[in-house]
Design goal:
With 297 residues, this protein is of the alpha+beta class. It contains six helices and 16 strands. The strands form two sheets. Strands 1, 2, 3, 4, 5, 6, 8, 9, 13 and 16 form a ten-stranded mixed beta sheet that branches. Strands 12-11-10-7-14-15 form a six-stranded antiparallel beta sheet, with helices on one face. The two termini are 29 Å apart.
């Protein structure tokens, strides 16, 4: 007998909850904000909207389904099952946070605060949850391309938006960069790091670098098996070059980076606390990931 689906509601601690946890009480948090010219009412109202959305989505889960909730900070310790339906209630970035832990499970993005989020990944409102969850098996889903970094010691990192390779403090990183489909040519570089991004990431950090470089390359679509990569602030010197600073990767190609510093890291989607640790001489390969994020509707 097959198991009934399990609805996994993913949410994050609100700013109001963080303030109260830091200052002890609502009154002390209000005093802290007032001393800086802010009104806690604004933060409290956003908190209430988020909690109302979470409650509304929870009540929309079919009675026959199992259910559970997981907070963003606990994602790396949560075990997702193949039959899960993942319901993200929050901001677009929360979908990116959960993507790396999934393997084909459908994801429904619910905007907890309409008007404040772009809605690229949280495409639906809480009031649409009953219809969405009842028909999730038959509703079409976009297969969003993801990027992965695999080190020569088998460490692996997956991200939905982008992967950054460089130093933890964004200082000068030294490495050798090469393209697998470029005849094995490599270049020694000193830079502020390398960014490899997807079409989904083209709405954020990747787009900033793309605009900065004069938009010579075409941004990929979220479902396209194509990535863009940029070297940040490459420094020319007798020992380091600047000829390989931007390009695109197809599904059959990859970027390789060999570390020539004491320590570099690779992290995805802005989460530096979940990073690959790379030491002198290690090589990491970055390219499209075979897994996709299945985003409903």
């Amino acid at each position: 007998m097959s198991l009934a689906p399990r609805a996994v509601l993913v949410h994050r601690t609100t700013e109001y909850e963080e303030l109260v946890a830091r200052h002890g009480t609502h009154g002390q948090a209000a005093f802290f904000l007032a001393s800086r010219g802010r009104d806690i009412a604004e933060v409290s109202e956003r908190h209430n909207r988020a909690r109302r959305a979470l409650a509304e989505v929870t009540s929309a889960i079919p009675l026959a389904w199992r259910r559970t909730q997981v907070e963003r900070s606990d994602l790396d310790r949560f075990l997702f099952a193949p039959e899960d339906v993942v319901v993200v209630v929050g901001q677009d970035g929360l979908v990116a946070n959960v993507a790396k832990y999934l393997d084909g499970q459908p994801v429904v993005g619910i905007d907890a605060d309409p008007g404040r989020n772009p809605g690229v990944l949280v495409r639906h409102r809480a009031e649409q949850a009953p219809v969405l969850l009842a028909s999730v098996a038959s509703t079409g889903a976009d297969e969003l391309t993801m990027v992965e970094a695999v080190a020569d010691d088998t460490q692996r990192l997956v991200a939905l938006n982008e992967i950054y390779l460089g130093t933890a403090g964004h200082q000068t990183a030294r490495y050798r960069l090469g393209l697998e489909d470029d005849g094995g040519a490599v270049e020694a570089q000193a830079s502020s790091g390398v960014l490899v991004g997807t079409g989904t990431g083209a709405t954020g950090w990747l787009r900033s670098l793309w605009q900065e470089r004069g938009a010579r390359l075409t941004l990929p679509a979220p479902t396209e098996d194509r990535l863009l990569w940029f070297v940040r602030e490459a420094w020319p010197s007798p020992a380091t070059g600047t000829s390989l600073v931007a390009g695109e990767l197809t599904a059959a190609s990859a970027l390789t980076l060999t570390v020539e510093s004491d320590r570099l890291i690779a992290f995805g989607d802005g989460i530096e606390t979940d990073a690959l640790e790379l030491t002198w001489g290690q090589t990491v390969r970055v390219g499209t990931c075979a897994r996709r994020l299945r985003l409903v509707g």
